[in-house]
């Protein structure tokens, strides 16, 4: 038997006619289901493809489809020894994946929509090919998760970590420097660990590589874990060294020369060096024998618990009908939920606040939060007799969805492609402002600003985007239309600490901030 399998694997290609009739029918059904899935959720796949192609953080995902194809091809000779059988519990998996997509669709969370679309692709395999074949394809199916463009959420955390590593190395190298958030002031100039320098794209790509290498090159679980750990730790440390190298070079050759060097090093050239170092370190510990099959079909066929699960089989046509019903259900639910819109007032205004007067909005550097898709937007400045000044931004949304997300990417206090940069997390506010998302911004490297963001929908008052999404999901699942408000209280921070005092004083004058927002948007 082993010689037959080896001969099959060594053949130049496994032809369609060589497949058993059961496999031919199963592959046709799976292909049909995937075509329907791609057509039904084309918008999500197109959005992912645009991110893969246009955003450097996700360029590596272009390699994931051929890698998955290669992983399946590796397992081909052994898979052919198994018999595919449609399995009705696969409908439960498909339903769960479709429900994930639904949650993303009704909340405007693209990540959930895209993850659901990818999960549905994988869920069709156990549904149409059965549990034994799915056991043989378990790793390629799990590896599909890397198709989802995720990781931008780590940017601020990685900026902070990189800045901490950089300042430590800068001090060790004898360069006097002062760190403030992600900005490092040195004798030759001010350096920013910007979003593009956070190293997130290398970390995401290295994790994808590490998972692949751990499966293909290792059998020992501890060695696999060590490989994954290296693919997380090494790129983070290496990115800190790269940032330090730029600062060190600037002290010797000047900022412009160092920036030019950084542009040459930074990119996939840098990633290739890090990747080569990790591979070189792991090479001698590879323990999977050459030409060893990736799976053992005989072992899979002999597992009694898989046999018990396999008893829940159905016909292939019934499985296809179930797929159609699941798709119709989630599409109908999503359409009904997306049409919900809360009634909007004709006009909203910033109210009078006791002890404060409206003043001309004249920031040292223009600052205007982004609230794309809002039905109403207000931006104004208040001033009290003590000289405190607070800028108030309110955006009111009739619904939360594509193009109108209060907590969406690029929305809120940090203006994209502007003079403002994220500096660090801001001071913790007191009272009902404590749940707000506080952040410190820096304009043109000289003007500091503190901004505290809060979302209001129903009884929720929170600066957490996750809590906002959960509240919106709950309302849409219950077909309940509620408006959403985004409130940002901000102040220029000069001297340091003045912004926190100004915002706290304003909050003390408005009373509880939730009811105050409700009055502004005319809900109370």
UniProtKB/TrEMBL annotation:
It is a multi-pass membrane protein. This is ABC transporter. One of its GO terms (biological process) is proteolysis. It is found in: Cell membrane. Residues 324-512 form the Methanolan biosynthesis EpsI domain. It comes from the Bacteria. GO terms for molecular function: peptidase activity. The keyword Lipid metabolism does not apply. Its main location: membrane. One of its GO terms (cellular component) is plasma membrane. Keywords: Cell membrane, Hydrolase, Membrane, Protease, Transmembrane, Transmembrane helix. It holds the Pfam family Exosortase_EpsH. The chain crosses the membrane at residues 23-43, 55-74, 86-106, 118-146, 202-221, 228-253, 265-286, 318-336.
């Amino acid at each position: 038997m082993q010689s037959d399998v080896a001969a099959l694997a060594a053949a130049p290609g496994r032809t369609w006619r060589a497949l058993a009739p059961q496999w031919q029918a199963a592959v046709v059904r799976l292909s049909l289901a995937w075509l329907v899935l791609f057509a039904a959720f084309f918008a999500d796949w197109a959005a992912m493809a645009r991110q893969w192609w246009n955003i450097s953080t996700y360029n590596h995902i272009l390699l994931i489809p051929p890698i998955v194809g290669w992983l399946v091809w590796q397992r081909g000779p052994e898979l052919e020894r198994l018999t595919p059988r449609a399995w009705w519990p696969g409908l439960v998996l498909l339903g769960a994946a479709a429900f994930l997509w639904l949650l993303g669709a009704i909340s405007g969370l693209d990540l959930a929509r895209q993850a659901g679309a990818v999960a549905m692709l994988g869920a069709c395999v156990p549904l149409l090919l059965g549990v034994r074949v799915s056991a043989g394809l378990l790793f390629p199916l799990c590896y599909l998760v890397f198709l989802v463009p995720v990781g931008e959420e780590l940017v601020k955390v990685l900026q902070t970590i990189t800045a901490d590593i950089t300042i430590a190395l800068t001090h060790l190298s004898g360069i006097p420097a002062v760190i403030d958030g992600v900005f490092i002031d040195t004798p030759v100039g001010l350096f920013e660990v910007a979003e593009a320098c956070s190293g997130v794209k290398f970390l995401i790509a290295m994790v994808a590589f590490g998972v692949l290498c751990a499966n293909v090159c290792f059998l020992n679980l501890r060695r696999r874990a060590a490989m994954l750990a290296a693919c997380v730790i090494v790129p983070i440390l290496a990115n800190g060294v790269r940032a330090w190298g730029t600062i060190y070079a600037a002290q010797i050759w000047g900022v412009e020369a160092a920036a030019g060097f950084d542009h040459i090093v930074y990119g996939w050239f840098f990633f290739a060096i890090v990747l080569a170092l990790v591979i070189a370190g792991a090479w001698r510990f590879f323990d999977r024998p050459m030409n060893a099959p990736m799976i053992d079909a005989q072992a899979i066929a002999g597992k009694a618990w898989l046999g018990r699960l396999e008893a829940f089989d159905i016909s292939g046509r019934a499985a296809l009908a179930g797929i159609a019903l699941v798709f119709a259900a989630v599409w109908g639910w999503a359409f009904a939920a997306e049409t919900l819109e809360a009634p909007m007032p004709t006009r909203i205004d910033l109210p009078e606040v006791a002890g404060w007067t409206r003043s001309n909005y004249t920031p040292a550097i223009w600052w205007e939060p982004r609230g794309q898709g809002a039905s109403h937007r207000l931006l104004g400045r208040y001033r009290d007799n003590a000289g405190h000044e607070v800028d108030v931004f309110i955006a009111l949304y009739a619904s939360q969805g594509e193009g109108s997300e209060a907590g969406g990417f690029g929305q809120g206090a940090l203006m994209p492609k502007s003079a403002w940069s994220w500096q660090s997390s801001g001071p913790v506010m007191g009272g009902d402002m404590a749940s707000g998302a506080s952040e410190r911004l820096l304009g043109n490297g000289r003007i500091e600003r503190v901004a505290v963001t809060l979302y209001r929908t129903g009884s929720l008052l929170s600066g957490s985007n996750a809590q906002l999404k959960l509240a919106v999901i709950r309302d849409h699942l219950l077909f309940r239309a509620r408006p959403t408000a985004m409130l940002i209280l901000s102040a220029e921070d000069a001297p340091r600490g003045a912004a926190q005092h100004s915002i706290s004083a304003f909050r003390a004058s408005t009373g509880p901030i939730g009811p105050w927002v409700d009055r502004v948007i005319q809900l109370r």
